[in-house]
Amino acid sequence: MNKLNWLDRSIATVSPRWAYKRLAWRNGMSVFDAGGRGRLNQGWSPSASPNEQQKRGERALIRARAQDLEHNSDIAGGILQAFQRNVTGTGIMLQAKVPHTVLGNTQGEINRNIEDLWKEYCKAENIDITGTQSLEEMAD
Fold first, then answer.
1. Do 111 and 96 contact (CB within 8 A), yes or no?
2. Taking the CA of residue 43 as centre, how many other CA atoms within 13 Å lie in the half-sphere pointing to its CB?
3. Inside any domain, residue 1
């Protein structure tokens, strides 16, 4: 809502109804708040370039800042090491734990067979359509 200037205040003292209509008309004319140039939009400097061009520049800046933090900040380096240690670690490891004997096979035999099959599956020729990377290489 617009504030009253000296003219509007003068009109309001003489005819409040006329001042109200004048103010309502003025508020109706400024449809877009984003188009205002007042103090509320003072720090807003939009770009007319397509979004992807603007995002590309911002991504490059964010990437450069992140790399700078990784190289120059002990705290950021520690956080990244924690992620590497706890998230990626040595990759996906399988340890089978079948709870009971199945079809005459002991638990140890079944668990070893499952783990051997998993190792075979993780080879490059079985997991990668191009046959060039194993599961461990893909996870890195």
1. yes
2. 0
3. no
Number of domains in the chain: 3
Domain that holds residue 31: 6-41
Mean pLDDT of 92-121: 83
Average predicted confidence (pLDDT) for the chain: 80
Report yes or no: 90 and 135 within 8 Å, Cβ to Cβ.
no
The pair of structure tokens assigned to 22 is: 């004048």
Main-chain dihedrals φ then ψ at residue 31, nearest 5 degrees: -75, -40
Q: Are 135 and 94 in contact (CB under 8 A)?
A: no
**62 in Cβ contact with 69 (< 8 Å):** no
> In this structure, is residue 28 part of a structural domain?
yes
Strand partners, 102: 105
DSSP 8-class letter at 88: I
More confident residue, 4 or 15: 15
Q: Is residue 46 part of a domain?
A: no
When pLDDT is averaged across residues 89-109 and rounded to a whole number, the result is 75
Residue 112 sits in the same domain as residue 140: yes
- In the numeric block, the tokens 């790399």 are attached to 67
| pLDDT, average across residues 27-56 | 71
